[in-house]
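User:
Care to share a sequence and structure tokens?

Assistant:
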Amino acid sequence: MFCKLARKNVVRSVRDYTLYFLTLLFGVCVFYVFNSLETQWVMEILAQGSGKMMVDAILQLMDVISVFVSVVLAFLILYANRFMLRRRKRELGIYLLLGMEQRKVALILFLETLIIGVLALAAGLVLGVLAAQFLSAFTAGLFAVTVEQFHFVFSWKGVVKTALYFGVIFLLVMGFNSFSVARQKLIRLLQAERQNEDLKLRSIPAAAAMFVVGVALIGTAYWMLFERGLLTLDPGFWLMLLLGSAGTLLFFRSLSGFLLRLCQNHKKLYYNGLNMFILRQFNSRITTNYWSMTVVCLMLLLAIGITACSVGLNNTVAGMVERDSPFDMTYEIWLDDNSVRLDLEQILTEAGFDVERDLPRRAQVSVCLLETAPGAEPSEDGESPSNALAISQRDANVLLSLLGREETDLPQDGYGVLRGTSSKSEEQALRLKTERPDLTVDGKTYHLEEAAWREDTVFTDGGVHGNILILPDAALEGRAPFKQMLVGDYPAGGSAEQTEERLQAAGERLPEVIGRYTKEGYGITRSTKLANYTDQMGTKLLVLFLGMYLGIIFLVTSAAVLALQQVSQAADNAGRYRILSRLGVEEKMQARSVDVQVFLSFFLPLSLAVVHSIVGMRAANKVIAQVGRLDVVASSTAAAVFILVVYGAYFLATCQASRRIVRER
């Protein structure tokens, strides 16, 4: 009988359970997707090479983060269940009034929670399995790797882990329901809809003082963030977080004191339409809701900041790979015997690599070593403390032309610079650009030409080479090359992986071929764009998945908390709206008042969170700038779309559900 009653209650209250069920569904889906990462094809590819340690680190970190996420979801579900239970107190009171024992009422709630939990878990897992396929396809588009055959992604580990974590959460919910019913008195259950929130703070001076102190605390936290930076983890960091959180709390707490009084001073606004009713209803709730608004604001800050930073840093990493890999491959060789000249195209061909077929666009150039770098200070013994790499204008223009860039035209006494990719290149380039030092080669002085300052990278090397000087052809004529370089692109439309395999096979035979031309020592390196992508793939995945995982969870949690609050409050206010109807207030005006209250509850925390995130992003930019340039437009756009889709969907669904409750009751 109890099972039948519980099932009928769930079916009858299906619309009331919609937001609650969807939140459970979405939580299960996201939890499964990010706990099934070991089955993602990109993880399998990354684990085949040197990235196995990175894969293990990513999976271990996801396990740790999943524990944190499960705690967040547990609080969310308990919080949502508390509001759903509050809406049903009158119904439960009627059960008790009809003679049903409290333990049997608790049993009904237990069975209802079990039914909803099983349905949400099953539907969430199905949706999660489907979403995992989209995630797999999405990650495939992020990397320069060809997927030979798409395969279905399914993880038993993800299923078991999701079922285990959410099973524990649902047991907590069931225990909470039983405890809540057992400690409630019949009169409180029957009069639950008549219980109002007490407004404790009405003093405008006290509220104004709270507002000023709150803003001061937030401003102090901002100042500490800019002065200390984002990554300095010391007691000052936690003090900064405490000040920011306390300031946010006081900001929302102060609204309960002067928001209503401030609007009352503007008679035209206060008495327009149902504004008086709206403001009083909103103000009556803020005394207790300011805690949840503070938490929601901070979670929105995390959602916006994590999403924007992950997308921005992800694009930065991708941009670094593109910057450091202008060609599909670069081969370089240097010999102890400088009198020997090797043709890299020839020795690769002898090693079995078809240069004509696999490198249709290619160029071979020489790089020389200068004993004196521009602006270098001589040491005490008269020797220069640093060297510099140089390339002739002719070879530089060959590379630039191959890249489709404008060629360089140097005067006979001028020199230019090709920007390097190493970590020291930017600092050295800035010094060169600022000081504009002269360069002396073989007794002749050369001046830095501004027009010959090039930001172009011309070798694929994974970010290890420094700046390269461009000198007139005559300046390097007759000078033995320090190393020979071969660059090229693979055939368009072909398989880069297969071409790379042939190139690697030829590389294994190169020592034998080179041995035919010289018995002296030599060095040879090969860098490819595909290898650079693979090397950066682990970092990219870690940043992207972690940002998506936490960003989605925090945003959904924030929106769900607000949605459940507003739906519950709409049910509490249904009697007041019936009175408005009897007084002749049109349904359209009532719907507008509902929308305005929902809007205030959703967008007040969001507005302050956006301000917090703007400040936080400026601090994060300084950190990201150490490894590359942040794509601010992409990160901001991604965060905005993210909020618009998820947060906006919850806002619209809440408005619709609240209107329906008010209209039906």
